[in-house]
């Protein structure tokens, strides 16, 4: 009868290398002498996403307004 499985992480050199990569506090110097940190915030690396459907959303909104206007006229509200 099985009572328990050992699911603990085995600590190896690979784990140390990965942790060193993730928690990197090193700096580097560019060709023009500027010193920068190797680790950067994700917001500095990846910019905001452009909404490629903005025009389509405006078309849908305009069509809905026309539809609502026609529905009000048919109901005699206007």
Detail the topology: elements first, then pairings.
Blueprint: H1 13-22, E1 27-29, E2 35-37, H2 42-45, H3 54-75
Number of strands: 2
**If you compute it from the alpha carbons, what radius of gyration comes out, rounded to the nearest whole angstrom?**
29 Å
Secondary structure tally, helices: 3
Ranges with pLDDT <50 over ≥5 residues?
none
Distance between the termini: 78 Å
Proportion of beta-strand residues: 5-15%
pLDDT averaged residue by residue: 79
Main sheet overview: 2 strands, antiparallel
In short:
This protein is mainly alpha-helical and 78 residues long. It is built from three helices and two strands, in the order αββαα.
Keywords for this structure?
mainly alpha, 3 helices, 2 strands, 46% helix
Written description of the protein model:
- Helices cover 46% and strands 8% of the residues.
- The chain is mainly alpha-helical and 78 residues long.
- It has a domain at 9-45.
- Strands 1-2 form a two-stranded antiparallel sheet.
- The N and C termini lie far apart (78 Å).
